[in-house]
Task: structure prediction
Amino acid sequence: MRASAAVEVVAAGGRSRCAVLRSDPPFTFRQTGDMLSWVGTAAGPVGGDELALVVDVGAGAELTLASVAASLVHPGPSGAPSKTAIRVAVASGARLRWAPRPTVLVRGCDHHAEIAIDLAADAVLLWRDEVVLGRHGEATGSLRQRLTIDRAGAPLLRTELAVGPRWPGSLGPAGTAGARAVGTIVAVGIDLVPVAADGVRMAVQPLADGALLLTAVADRPGALSTALDQASSPSERFVAPLPADPACGHAK
Result:
């Protein structure tokens, strides 16, 4: 399957509104309360799928993008990897909070993810990512995820996560060391508060110009989610309503 989606939010009249909302299954977006949520309308990604998402937050606009359920990455019949490409632009004075539910690596999957984020110098970002290594009682699949963030045209962060049987060293003492969940948060223009929680190992690394990178591993996915919620709670102050807009276009 090949599918693409696009989201564009602009500031108008002191509020943020959706100017473009286009999606193909399994990418389907719906307004849920004060945020835009990714609703899975088909299984995916499945081995062999190629999915693309473009998110554009215009000058002065605010967007919280989440999901209603965890995303399961499945192997495909051909053995080919699944691929996801996400491109994000956050303009001057704009704010983006990306906080979907975890991605679960089903046994046998081989997923490649490329995420590229372009921030204006005064843009605000909270980028949260959680990966669960297999379903309950199941061995994990494989993931290679690359995240690049530029700020004002200069590199801010280049990082990669490679886990699973394709990367056997990742599961050893120098990697996840038996953990069942891995999480990261990148915070630009907001604070993070490291927390202590049973079964969770967490570290915060300063980046340039006050940006922060939090990484964590946990024995239980639920413990990881709770710890990341607590660490990122100061960011809640910039979440703002996203009013529905009949001008948004929907396509399948």
